[in-house]
């Protein structure tokens, strides 16, 4: 070994020959783009006018760039910590289950998918329509398990049927009722398939000491029929709550039967009939995942789905090197599993956890394609990040590559401190 080292010292050109290809590639792919971006950031959009540090001043005055920086800070604070935490939990779990290999494969599999493909997948997952979006399908299923929806969402009266829709969504009969009346309350705008299994509507029989009536879908398949009259084949609207209001308060209520009829007691004499707004409230369609409020957390969720497997594999490798004697000694001394995990396992894995965290922090500062694919165009300004803003500014409508170069240099400056911390950590590990 000493002889080989002497040969290399005596022939530095040999060392240069070996390093030259790597240095050329490093200069062409790393050093030159950085130097040129720094130079270009000093000029305006045309590249002819020198503007000095004006482009860098825009980084802190342009609302779009400030929003992108704010979102990057959210990414930096949330995504690496969540992915590392889940990776730690998964790595510990793989030591406790028999099918550990299959579990690792399942969790790590998203890493085999490109960011573009993952973005398309989660764009579909977050679809607002529960019939298409998996996330809202799950949310609505859970919601509907604990809450009954409105029986006839979206139903409305015709303007000339003696019924008026109120601002709160309830429907009020224009004329007061008296005992012995049999009233007709026709509604429309109910999809025919929703009443396919409903019974035919029937006119309620008048009762001397009660107010009766019928609520039905005033629509005949194929057209025809007379508005405001129960024609053959028209369907009843069952389960509709009908209330009698006197002096601003409800004095009686009833629900329509399967044939659409209802009966209110004598207290309804002289009352105003009201169909409660709860009968017609729009059905629960889940969460607006891609709206301005939740779009950034939703995209972070897709990122964690991809990178938790990466964290798990690295942490599991570190966990395999933890001496089992230390863990067993802690258990013998009376520590429970949570104490062993918190006071022994996590401290021993601290170097590995640090490497994973730093790697993911560098990665999230460069996140681009997930935001571009998942966020709809209308909310992209709310989900914007620096890398996407760099692309938009440089190659979008304005094509201001001077400002884009300034954003690129700013991103580089954000990454450098994290890289320095990572290098120092690696040096300390090498000296141990």
From TrEMBL:
UniProt keyword list: Cell membrane, Membrane, Transmembrane, Transmembrane helix, Transport
Transmembrane segments: 12-35, 73-93, 105-126, 304-323, 344-365, 403-423
Location of region: Disordered: 148-167
ABC transmembrane type-1 domain location: 69-422
Subcellular location(s) per record: Cell membrane
Membrane topology summary: Multi-pass membrane protein
UniProt main location, coarse: membrane
Superkingdom in the source lineage: Bacteria
Family, similarity comment: Belongs to the binding-protein-dependent transport system permease family.
Name of the protein in question: Sugar ABC transporter permease
Protein source organism: Streptomyces bohaiensis
